[in-house]
Specification:
This protein is mainly α. It has a single domain, classed as 3-Layer(aba) Sandwich (Rossmann fold), CATH 3.40.50. Helices cover 52% and strands 9% of the residues. It has helices at residues 13-22, 38-45, 59-64, 76-85, 88-104, 107-116, and strands at residues 26-28, 50-53, 68-71. The chain has a three-stranded parallel sheet, with helices on both faces. β1 (26-28), α2 (38-45) and β2 (50-53) form a beta-alpha-beta unit.
């Protein structure tokens, strides 16, 4: 596992960017959390599909936009099965859906909404 899973703290922004670029999926689990979804924002920025549990606030957005895999409970076997079934076409679809989220939640779109108000 050491060559596939990296746990790090206190890394630089450039190293973080490099890790996002190398990654195929991001994984984020939590329960009853509210607040800024930094991981979600960064994953969208890097067109990185991710795996998230349904107790997090951004799970609904990911599920509705087919931009990753939302689990009802943290079931490692179901996640493994999902990862084993992903082919290049499905992965490309997930990334394309992330690109749509980039456009939908861009600063320009937010500014347009404010101007329209």
């Amino acid at each position: 596992m050491d060559d596939k899973v990296i746990l790090k703290e206190g890394i630089s922004e450039s190293e973080l960017h490099s890790l996002y670029e190398k990654s195929k999926f991001g994984i984020r689990f939590g329960c009853g959390e509210y607040g800024l979804a930094t991981f979600t924002i960064e994953a969208i920025q890097h067109t990185l599909p991710f795996i998230i549990n349904d107790e997090l606030g951004t799970a609904k957005m990911i599920k509705e936009n087919d931009a990753g895999y939302v689990v009802n409970e943290i079931n490692y076997f179901a996640i493994k099965e999902f990862l084993n079934k992903i082919d290049q076409n499905k992965y490309q679809d997930l990334q394309n859906n992330m690109k749509k989220l980039q456009q939908k939640y861009s600063w320009l779109n937010h500014a347009k909404k404010l101007v329209d108000i």
